[in-house]
Amino acid sequence: MALLKSHLLPLLLFSLSALLFLSSFFYLSSPHPNPNPNLTLRPQNPDFTFIIKLLAYNRLDSLSRCLRSLAAADYLSDRVHLHVHIDHFALADADDADRKLRESRRILDLVDAFEWRFGEKLVHYRTANVGLQAQWLEAWWPSSDHEFAFVVEDDLEVSPLYYKFLKNLIVNYYYNASNSRPYIYGASLQDQGLFQLAEIGYNVSLVAQAVVWHYFDQDVGKHGNKLKVDDRTRLFLYQLVGTWGQLLFPKPWKEFRLWYDKHKAKGIKPFLDGMVTTGWYKKIGEKIWTPWFIKFVHTRGYFNIYTNFLHERALSVSHRDAGVNYGKTAGPDSHILDESSLEPKFWNTLPLGDLKWYDFCFREIFPERVIGSLDELGSVLNSVQTNNTVIIVSLFGVKEMVVSNLLCQFESLNLRNYILTGPESEFLFDLARKGHPVIITNRFLESVGAYKLLSVHNSYVQLISEILVKVYVLQKCLESKYSSWVVDGNMLPVSADPFVVESDPSYDFYIGTSPELFFARASSSAQKDVGGTDFISNFAMLVNSLLVRQQSVSFGYVMAKFLEMKKSARVNTLDETSFGLRVDNSIVNQSLGDRKKIVFWPSDMASEIVQKRLQEIGIWVINDDSSCKAIVCHQS
After folding, report:
1. Which pTM value belongs to this model?
2. DSSP per-residue letters across 544-588
3. pLDDT digits over 361-418, tens only?
4. Beta 571-574 vs 509-512: how paired, if at all?
5. Using one digit for the tens of pLDDT, what is the confidence trace for 414-445?
6. Bridge partners of 153?
7. Burial class (CB in 10 A: 0-12, 13-18, 19+), 426
8. 491 contacts 415 by C-beta, under 8 angstroms
9. Buried b (16+ CB within 10 A) or exposed e, 472-506
């Protein structure tokens, strides 16, 4: 029996090993449900450096309170460094020098005696007064992409929980590859209730002008919105920087500093019409830094993470003590959040796709809105339509700066009911990232199986793609009972209702005489003419046959031919010059005149000439970097 067992032992061990290997293989290779769908996989303990940048000046009691709160926080046994940047007093009045020297010595004595047990303590005492701009901008240049700065001014008080919370954000929204975005520049701990207290454009005193919600001009912002975040929302994204406890991510901050250096060296000012910071900058110049950062964020379309805790609670509180920003002490803006007031879901972090995103005007936007299927198209049409009308804008062959000018003009006129179509490019993906609804033509047509309808040479694929994508969107609009305008990028609206024209309701379709302008009315008869399962294939067959005969084709031309074959189709022509101004190479210094709603030009007109003509009319509304010259808020 012993001999038999010794014989079988190797076999038994081999069998057991094989069983364990197969079990492990099938366990690892088979999908498993996520026990918490709100959380995504992330590194458990990424190695990063966290530096507190404390900006101080001449407020001894404020600085002492801030240091005590920082030292009382829970740092989870992590090394956290404290860098104190003390601005020097101004030397304008020699008679007051002794008093100011004594104040500075007391502040230095306080910082020198302060024990920081969590990492290195560094003190930078300036030799001259530099103000807030240099204090902020020169406080930090990240030594790596794994170094983070938490910037606090000396009248701030932080919650004992602030570091644990910020570390959770860093792990989830910076290091989690599936849940991070390069256009998120950090997180602010200031109370979200600040945004709700004042409508954009509220007339405030000079004392309170430094507060974030008053960054908008009264004239421009009076039609803006209040931020609407429900009580269940704990995190959201907004574009403005929050200076009362701001965590900065390293990559965007480096990008900003280089952008700042370039603009300063070339003498470019951080002017942004519609923002009160432009007026501040014109008045006091380089003493403040926020106009520069706001201009940068607006140009790049970047976002900041904000918190929304109930009952005016926050992880950082500004006591708004008398100083550079306040003529007299205004008192704390909110209440400190601590362990006793925690909610059960405090530490939960939702995927970015589940958070709400807001632009400067508190208007909700939807980043990365690339439409990839007919179902997605239907959903987006429902969200963008205005008065049951959608504008389909083709960007094929249109220069990027002309597109940027078009979108800034859309913004100023509050035109939101559009969908952009164009070929795959980084520029188009960037427009989608900023919240513009975009169809990448080749990807969309592949997803709907459109390319199987083509039978002509590959040299015509882009032309046919440009035409077919318009047909798909047009048909979906009519199915959804939305009227639609199909236009190319060689036009610019100059009226808030550019495509509301007097038309005979007995016609379902209008075809422009000059540019690619087409209108389809939402009616049962129109849906019958261009609806049904055979419409797309029949339209593609017509395009193929025209190209085989080497005829010049465009969307408007093919639609006209197609509708001619539909004896019942009710079609009329539309003379664009009746409500639009045509510009070209030869005519200069034109004026819009009365009742003009659009400006248009030949599609082959050089973009430099287009820019010059639009500048002459006064409707070139972008800067040299293609960013909008102004922020214009509208009531939702």
Report:
1. 0.85
2. HHHHHTT----HHHHHHHHHHH-TT--EEEE-GGGTEEE--SS--
3. 999 999 999 999 999 999 999 999 999 999 999 999 999 999 999 999 999 999 999 9
4. parallel
5. 999 999 999 999 999 999 999 999 999 999 99
6. 55
7. exposed
8. no
9. bbbbbbbebebbbbbbbbbbbbbbeebbebeeeee
